[in-house]
Amino acid sequence: MCGIIGYLGPRPPLEVLLEGLKRLEYRGYDSAGIGVFHGQEVVIKRCEGKIRTLEKLLEGMRVSGKVGIGHTRWATHGEPNERNAHPHKSGRVSVVHNGIIENYLSLKEELKGRGRVFHSDTDSEVIAHLIDEGLKNGLEVEEAVRRALERLQGSYAILVLVDGLTDLLIGARKESPLLLGLGEGEYFLCSDAPAIIQWTRDFIFLEDEEIAVIRPEGFRIFDLKGRNKEKRAIRVDWSPTMAEKGGYKHFMLKEIHEQPHVLIDTLRGRINEEEGRVRFEDFPFSDEELERFQRVVLVACGTSWHAGLIGERWLESLAGIEAKAEIGSEFRFRDLLGDERTLLIAISQSGETADTLQAVREGKKKGFRTLGICNVLGSSLTREVEGTLFTRAGPEISVASTKAFLAQLGVLFLLALYLGQKRRRLTEERVRSFIFELRRLPHLMEEVLRKDGFFQELAKDYYNYTNFLYLGRGISYPVALEGALKLKEISYVHAEGYPGGEMKHGPIALIDEKMPSVVIAPRDHTYEKMLGNIKEIKSRKGKVIALLNQEDPQVQSQVDVTIRVPFTSWLLSPFVTVLPLQLFAYYVADFKGTDVDQPRNLAKSVTVE
Questions:
Q1: Do the beta carbons of residue 314 and residue 418 sit within 8 Å?
Q2: What does residue 286 show for φ and ψ, rounded to 5 degrees?
């Protein structure tokens, strides 16, 4: 996820771009840059780090133009440094880009074969080359942009400036947001409303494969087939703070609702349904090395550990390899057994979790091979391990992790499929069937999230309870742990997650009418056992909130509340069963009036031991 902004109008463009980028910094803070006309050429300034570093770089800079573009980056391809910061320029064309170009490697090789020289490691630079090549082949600028976009596979929101065309700003989008803001004699293009809400409240929301061409006298919007599109502006009455949160009350709620798109980005370019194949960019181990691994250890802390617990079940079921999820802070103090035939997978949203990093170091001393699953390029974890699979969740602002957890699940499931196919445990047909289900998941997740109001009402009924028990079996046990953790983190309500089979070994003593139990019971091989748990709770006058993925009138007549989620195969059920637990925790905390995004005593990255 990155933030982009473009401006055409009478205001000093540097001031508009810098102020807009500051308001977009929650979308990316690895690096930043601007491109502004001075005379007939676009002058580019960019740097590694936050917007304040760019601001210092621009002190005293003078420009004559009235058009400019800016970018704040959350890296997905290429290290976060000045070389990979945007804008990227090729010939006359300067581009900023938010999204992921799936086929950039093949396009890059094709362009290099025609003598094009690349100056970054990003996927974005190919866009500038394609447009510039079109211009050199005699195309008008609008046609050059359109033809370049036809070549791209993946997602994009782009802004384009062309040397010599000092009164022209072009934007286009596909599966990444782009808004056109309309002012008095001025125009703005941006990723999100907060960048420009102080100057205009009138927006045109561009749709997929639409291109906006803006000049001082007006704008034109057309699609990739060249057909003009009539669009009406919408007035948005958000405050700047609400705009930054996309209209949601808290970042956590916004990030919960971003999860379907996050999963799409995590899967993008890594699955091929036609071939029944999973692939990873820059995977660090050969097929022969993968065959030699006898054991996988997943180390993580907190929510990432819960993702690891689910991942261990996938690795065992799909890859046929022994797997064990370990808490980083405990693992590092063990007398570790294993050697180079052990693969240690470290999972961390930030890549800076101290206990996880130390666990990796201890594993390396024993000769373990190492792999990271991380959301942040260039983080400490990525430098400690032999290779990293990036989750592509974008910046997560709320301390309580939601979309990063979901993205970790996406990568772990793909990894299990990948190892399964490489170790010849899965046929192409079986991989193809799972890819088909994965593609459906974002739509099923949207179904759950559309019931947002139901979870708000449920929380209103239960937010005064002081203790909760969360129960699950098999792959739903880690989901129970995660649901309980979310409630504890943000609402300060005591909650415990337990395996259903362990209830009789202690927790059942707590059951009474004041102790609600959240029972996660998707229809799988543990379902009948979970029904037994429900009966045990109800016989002791306990309240039961049952999470099901199929109609079951018998169960629904026994419990106090039923939460229905769409049916999936049991292996994929966590992608949908965790969503109600996130929303329930959020609304309980909101009703209790806690600081949802920054709960007391917690930090986003635990960088101390």
A1: no
A2: -75, 165
The overall longest dimension of the chain from CA atoms, in Å, is 81
pTM: predicted TM-score of the whole model, two decimal places: 0.81
Kindly list the distances between the CA atom of residue 454 and the CA atoms of 457, 460, 560, in Å, as whole numbers in the listed order. Answer: 5, 10, 14
Phi/psi zone of residue 86: left (φ > 0), alpha (ψ -120 to 50 degrees), beta? beta
Q: How many CA atoms lie within 13 A of 462 on its CB side?
A: 29
Helix (H, G, I), strand (E, B) or coil at 554: helix
Task: State how far the Cα of 410 lies from the Cα of 22, in Å rounded to an integer.
Answer: 31
Check: CB of residue 1 under 8 Å from CB of residue 156. Answer: no
DSSP code of 193?
G
Q: Catalytic site residue 451?
A: no
C-alpha pair distances (Å), 66 with each of 14, 104, 182, 434: 9, 32, 16, 51
Percent of the chain with pLDDT over 70: 98
| 4 touches 181 (CB < 8 A) | no
Q: What are phi and psi of 14, to 5 degrees?
A: -60, -40
Q: Is the dihedral of CA 437, 443, 445, 447 positive or negative?
A: negative
pLDDT tens per residue, range 262-284: 999 999 889 988 889 999 988 99
Fold match between 254-448 and 451-592?
A: yes
The C-alpha atoms of residue 575 and residue 260 are separated, in whole angstroms, by 10
Domain range annotation of the chain: 3-244, 254-448, 451-592
Which CATH superfamily, name and number, covers 451-592? Glucose-6-phosphate isomerase like protein; domain 1 (3.40.50.10490)
Active site residue 604: yes
CATH superfamily, domain at 254-448: Glucose-6-phosphate isomerase like protein; domain 1 (3.40.50.10490)
Out of 231, 366, 592, 604, which one is annotated catalytic? 604
Can you read off the two tokens belonging to residue 394?
Answer: 């974008």
Of 2, 190, 301, 374, which residue is the catalytic one? Answer: 2
Q: Is residue 328 helix, strand or coil? A: helix
User: How does strand 41-48 pair with strand 67-73?
Assistant: unpaired
- Distance between CA atoms of residues 287 and 543, nearest Å: 51
556-601 confidence digits (pLDDT tens) = 899 999 999 999 999 999 999 999 999 999 999 999 999 999 888 8
User: Letter for the amino acid at 111?
Assistant: L
Exposure string of 556-568, with b = 16+ CB inside 10 Å and e = fewer, is eebbebbbbbbeb
- 3-state SS of 59-77 is CCCCCCCCEEEEEEECCCC
* Element housing 188 (H / E): strand 187-190
CATH number of 3-244: 3.60.20.10
Residue 125, pLDDT > 60, answer yes
For β-strands 322-327 and 295-300, DSSP reports them as: parallel
Rounded CA-CA distance 258/395 in Å is 11
Distance between CA atoms of residues 578 and 576, nearest Å: 6
- Per residue in 312-346, pLDDT (tens digit) is 999 999 999 999 999 999 988 888 888 899 999 99
